[in-house]
Amino acid sequence: MIRVLVADDEPLIRAGIRMILTSADDIDVVAEAANGREAVDLVRAHSVDVALLDIQMPVLDGLSALAELRRAAPTVQPLILTTFGERENVLRALSHGGAGFLLKDSAPAELIQAVRAAAAGDAYLSPAATRHVVDSLASGQTAARGEEARRRLETLSTRELEVLALLGEGLSNADAGERIHVSEATVKTYVSRILTKLRCENRVQAALLARDAGLEPS
């Protein structure tokens, strides 16, 4: 079972997320928090695989909770629940190692998919979330940043660039494998190499680097 913590300051939102997640036979919501401080404390008290964190919460917001969780419980995979209203929030979440991003208007099936992906170590960035991230960062796009991204991508092989472009689309390892006709395990190996070469903490950071460089799937 995938053990999940849900953190949101609105009880109805938490109840809705619980109902969706527990409809899957492999997911169990083991704790709920109304703020980021409660979330961090509950992760310490429970064996949690995935923490679903809303950005806007009292006492301790989701991004601050994410930073604490990365220090206190590095094996927990944090998913950020957001509307991507502010560019700075996205950048902070990336810098603190968020395992993925999910929009609040996402379909129930996407929520379940995201939790499963995060639990498998396959950080989730949906195509819809990818578009919102790229749009939110577009105003800060500079020629220098694009040049720097392209320079970093020079260390990758042709196949690694192909895989990275698919990450930029928000594809999972399994979907990327189907696209380029290799196994999911092979894609996972490529992703590990890509993260190491690009000095990225997770797939989300790598995906955004691909977008900065203008990398598109072939």
TrEMBL record:
Record-linked SMART domains: HTH_LUXR, REC
Domain HTH luxR-type: 149-214
Highest taxon, organism lineage: Bacteria
Chain ranges of the Response regulatory domain: 3-119
Record keywords: DNA-binding, Phosphoprotein, Transcription, Transcription regulation
InterPro entries listed in its UniProt record: CheY-like_superfamily, NreC/VraR/RcsB-like_REC, Sig_transdc_resp-reg_C-effctor, Sig_transdc_resp-reg_receiver, Tscrpt_reg_LuxR_C, WalR-like
Modified residues (4-aspartylphosphate): D54
Protein name per the record: Response regulator
